[in-house]
């Protein structure tokens, strides 16, 4: 029981962290509330289903192809549908909702609404301190950790990362300092979508793949980034693990918990917001004019 | 006789001076007139049903505009008002047996209470935080609805309610007249002194507070007004389709309201109404292509918004009318002088986007 909660919590939290950090990044840099973010996660899961189950590619290639393809799609979507109307913030929001809807419908058209399963990459399990952990779970955890580390490295140790953080802090000044803000936004979109795709690829073998699988993570990601403080990477990480564990605890411990898992996580978010309106790690917004 | 002639003259003058002077108002007038006389020509129940539902959702979308468009308090959980009112009126109707004309206002009041309940804690948040926090409430309520199925009917909802009226035509007139009336009321609110404060809060809340206006009170007022109108539409909806189910609380309904409103053009009231009356029938019409219906819907929304990022009606209005540079009253684009202050028109091109009023 406890070990199940621990492992499931870590995995949920990890996948949410991948999604939420990407969402936070793109919000911070381009001020886009990208509702379609988890739709990319959904199509990544479908790509890996197509490549590995239908076309019989080696899982490793399937994973790489899916991630690359989804990243490319994400950048194309950004160029075509978000960038032209970037000044109109709420219009961008609607367009991303519509983009998510379009993806969902395309997937429904091609694959139908059936629940699909994906085979695990690795089978078998390992005993850690007397707890059985399947290799697939272990792999997911390691991948999540690795990707988060890589993102941290990019953000804090490379010139690109400095550009991204500078743009997030102040777009205009970053532009004045000679950064190509639009390009930075586009690259950030690529990174964010890639993280979402990695999340989707990792989740595909662990749960069912279906066209509506983006909705629940979307709500959770929104809750996480608000809980942690919008645009704060640290906050997104903390929020993801807090809500990942909450969800798992509720499902395991409360009868009818599956209905309530969203409700509980969101209540935690609201309580945090009431105590700290800017989220756990957010900086209090100066009055924006 | 003389009195009636006099009042006829007054009506004619009113039409001439207030309505036919602006193309947008003329269009709105003929649109309402068309809706009112439509049942004389056709009694097709399917068509009437579409217009009834469009009217109900038009009230809903316009109430979103009143809160989020005018005051700028982005509400992503507008379905909360709709769902609370729907469930309240359904349960009152089924368990206590109150008639629809009582349950719908009571449901709307319940929605007002819900609006205050989320408004008071959420007013400390602003911008995207507020939007995302409000998104949470209908989802929480939906979780609660699912866990007490003996009261709420769980996934199936509360069914077997009394119909709105005995015949389809009567329901049609109730919904259409309410839509027109409430639309006018909301438009008037947006035009009133309160509405101006709402505008100001959206543009610059600090400045409003500095002018000695209690912005919290006005934001709460916006929350409760919007909740009231959305609640009315929720009650009408539940009595029209005679079931209150969890779909009234879904995230997609909240998003739907935002899509309708922004597609039509926010901060106008008539924009969201137009949006609903275009998009809802469109969605029904696309039933001929059931497979790709939602796909086409999404693509149409994206394409229109890429060309008219401020919404359809705002785009059309800016082609037909322009603001007087001196007194800011709207005029037909081909007038040489302003209709109120006779200032010369066309000197300054109004830059679209900075003021939606």
Report what the structure shows:
The complex is a heterodimer of chains A (289) and B (357). By secondary structure, chain A is mostly helical. Chain A has one domain (2-211). Chain A has helices at residues 2-30, 37-54, 59-82, 89-111, 135-157, 159-169, 171-176, 181-203, 215-228, 233-253, 257-275; strands spanning 125-128, 131-134. Chain A has a two-stranded antiparallel ribbon with strand order 1-2. Chain A starts with a helix and ends in a 14-residue tail after the last helix. In chain B, 70% of the residues lie in helices and 3% in strands. Chain B contains 15 helices and four strands. Chain B has helices spanning 2-19, 23-41, 45-70, 79-96, 100-122, 128-147, 149-152, 168-191, 193-203, 205-210, 215-241, 251-264, 270-285, 293-307, 312-320; strands spanning 158-159, 243-244, 321-323, 330-332. In chain B, a hairpin with a 6-residue loop joins strand 3 and strand 4. The model of chain B is unreliable at 350-357 (pLDDT under 50). At the A-B interface, helix 4, helix 9 and helix 11 of A face helix 6, helix 12 and helix 14 of B.
Describe this protein with a few key phrases.
heterodimer, A: 289 residues, mainly alpha, 11 helices, 3% strand, B: 357 residues, two-stranded antiparallel ribbon, two-stranded antiparallel sheet
């Amino acid at each position: 029981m406890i070990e199940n909660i621990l492992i499931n919590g870590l995995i949920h939290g990890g996948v949410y962290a991948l999604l939420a950090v990407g969402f936070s990044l793109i919000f911070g840099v381009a001020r886009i509330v990208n509702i379609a973010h988890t739709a990319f996660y959904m199509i990544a899961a479908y790509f890996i289903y197509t490549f590995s189950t239908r076309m019989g590619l080696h899982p490793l290639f399937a994973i790489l192809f899916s991630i690359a393809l989804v990243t490319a799609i994400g950048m194309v979507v950004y160029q075509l549908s978000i960038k032209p109307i970037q000044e109109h913030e709420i219009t961008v929001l609607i367009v991303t909702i519509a983009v998510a809807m379009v993806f969902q419908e395309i997937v429904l058209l091609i694959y139908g609404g059936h629940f699909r399963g994906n085979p695990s990459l690795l089978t078998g399990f390992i005993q850690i301190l007397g707890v059985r952990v399947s290799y697939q779970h272990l792999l997911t955890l390691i991948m999540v950790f690795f990707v988060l580390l890589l993102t941290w490295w990019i953000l804090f140790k490379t010139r690109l990362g400095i550009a991204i953080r500078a743009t997030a802090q102040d777009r205009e000044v970053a532009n004045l300092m000679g950064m190509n803000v639009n390009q930075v936004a586009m690259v950030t979109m690529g990174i964010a979508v890639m993280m979402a795709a990695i999340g989707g690829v990792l989740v595909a073998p662990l749960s069912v793949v279906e066209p509506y699988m983006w909705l629940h993570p979307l709500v959770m990601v929104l809750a996480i980034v608000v809980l942690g403080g919008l645009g704060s990477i640290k906050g997104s990480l903390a929020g993801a693990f807090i809500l990942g564990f909450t969800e798992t605890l509720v499902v395991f411990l409360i009868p009818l918990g599956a209905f309530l898992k969203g409700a509980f996580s969101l209540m935690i978010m609201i309580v945090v917001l009431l105590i700290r309106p800017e989220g756990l790690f957010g900086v209090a917004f100066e009055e924006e004019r | 006789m003389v009195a009636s002639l006099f009042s006829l003259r007054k009506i004619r003058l009113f039409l001439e001076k207030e309505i036919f002077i602006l193309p947008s108002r003329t269009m709105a007038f003929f649109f309402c007139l068309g809706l009112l006389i439509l049942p004389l020509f056709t009694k097709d129940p399917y068509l009437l049903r579409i217009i009834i539902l469009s009217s109900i959702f038009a009230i809903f979308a316009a109430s979103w505009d009143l809160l989020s468009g005018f005051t700028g308090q982005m509400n992503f959980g507008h379905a909360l008002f709709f769902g609370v009112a729907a469930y309240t009126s359904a349960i009152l109707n089924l368990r206590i047996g109150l008639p629809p004309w009582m349950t719908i206002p009571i449901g709307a009041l319940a929605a007002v209470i819900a609006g205050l309940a989320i408004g008071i804690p959420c007013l400390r948040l602003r911008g995207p935080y507020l939007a995302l926090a409000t998104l949470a409430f209908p989802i929480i309520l939906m979780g609660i609805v699912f866990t007490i199925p003996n009261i709420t009917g769980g996934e199936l909802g509360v069914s077997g309610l009394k119909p709105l009226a005995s015949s389809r035509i009567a329901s049609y007139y109730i919904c259409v007249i309410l839509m027109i009336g409430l639309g006018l009321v909301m438009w008037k609110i947006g035009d009133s002194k309160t509405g101006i404060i709402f505008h100001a809060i959206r543009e610059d809340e600090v400045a409003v507070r500095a002018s000695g206006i209690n912005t919290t009170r006005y934001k709460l007022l916006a929350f409760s007004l919007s909740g009231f109108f959305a609640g009315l539409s929720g009650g009408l909806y539940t009595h029209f389709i005679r079931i209150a189910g969890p779909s009234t609380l879904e995230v997609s309904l909240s998003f739907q309201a935002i899509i309708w409103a922004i597609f039509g053009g926010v901060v106008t009231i008539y924009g969201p109404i137009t949006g609903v009356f275009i998009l809802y029938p469109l969605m029904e019409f696309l039933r001929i292509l059931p497979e790709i219906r939602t796909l086409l819907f999404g693509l149409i929304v994206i394409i229109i918004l890429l060309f008219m990022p401020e919404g359809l009606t705002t785009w059309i209005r800016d082609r037909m009318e322009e603001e007087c540079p001196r007194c800011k009253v709207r005029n037909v684009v081909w007038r040489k002088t302003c209709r109120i202050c006779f200032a010369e028109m066309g000197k300054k091109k109004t830059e679209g986007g900075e003021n939606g009023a």
